[in-house]
Amino acid sequence: MPPPLGGPADVTEVRPQDAWELSPSVALRPEPFGALAYHFGNRKLTFLKRPELVTLVRALGGAPDVGTALDVVGVPAKQRAGYLAALAALAGTDMIRRRAS
After folding, report:
1. Residue 34: which domain range?
2. What number of CA atoms fall less than 13 Å from residue 77's CA on the CB side?
3. Which residues contact 9 (CB under 8 A, 6 or more apart)?
């Protein structure tokens, strides 16, 4: 069963067919290496060390699902597993959250 909508959960997987978005409690600050993500609710600070990951995180809310966001951003098929793992880590700290599809 998927975690509840809108909240952090013990996420072990972000699937391409699921819809996700940047948590409304998170601010992204651009940096030369990518971005700093700060969660105002739980006070977690995360370094997004790839500009491509920042672009993907920003694209999640405007895409119908993660797979479409990966396509829009241009993530090659060979790299998708790594990006999905990075998104799962972000989901585990409520930086991104599941949304209704």
Report:
1. 20-98
2. 0
3. 3, 91, 92, 98
How far is it, in rounded angstroms, from Cα 55 to Cα 20?
Answer: 14
User: Model confidence over 14-55: pLDDT tens digits?
Assistant: 999 999 999 999 999 999 999 999 999 999 999 999 999 999
Dihedral sign for Cα atoms in the order 26, 36, 13, 40 = negative
Say how many C-beta atoms besides its own lie within 10 A of residue 49's C-beta.
12
Task: Please report, for the domain that includes residue 40, its CATH number.
Answer: 3.90.930
Q: Is residue 47 part of a domain?
A: yes
In this prediction, residue 2 has a pLDDT band, given cuts at 50, 70 and 90, of: very low
When divided into structural domains, the chain yields a total of 1
